[in-house]
Amino acid sequence: MLITVSDQSALIITDVQKDFCPGGALPVHEGDRVVPVLNAYQEKFSRVGSPVVFTRDWHPRNHSSFVENGGIWPVHCVQNTDGAQFHPDLQFPGTALLVSKAADPNLEAYSSFDGTRLFEMLTRLKVETLFIGGLTTDYCVKCTALDGVNFGFSVYILKDAIQGVNVNPGDSEKAIEEMSRAGIREVTLNELA
User: Which of 9, 125, 136, 193 shows a CA-CA span of 20 to 30 A to 61?
Assistant: First the structure.
């Protein structure tokens, strides 16, 4: 059964930034493999006039999540640095919306809803269904998807366009199970009409 994409659907592309891709400060194994698939999703969503939202980690240099500041992560995605830029092959259409998260030095924000205006944007656009892909399955994709459900959206994760950091083996699989228990469904590009 095909799932129809409409103008009440939104594509959320989560944190496909250089620092999360091979060669970056916090690389996700094969993180860049999601780029061509996400570009294909963008084309499909753009054809029907659905909003496309790009999210990015946008940390100040003194962010509390960094090891040097008592956090658990290496310095990554620092505002206005090369590592914070989107992957160079990721298409960014002129009509796309941009959400920057984790910009407060004292707050971690895995969810694209945390400390942003994403909910207000989606509500204003009368979006009912979210399709979420990008990096990473086990952190930002998962937290954004779970918050989406909590805000009342119908949520799908793009099974063919997510990749996990897997700090611990199996973290991505556990994240997918947690999302499934919350009513989040998986979908691939060829299942969308």
Answer: 136
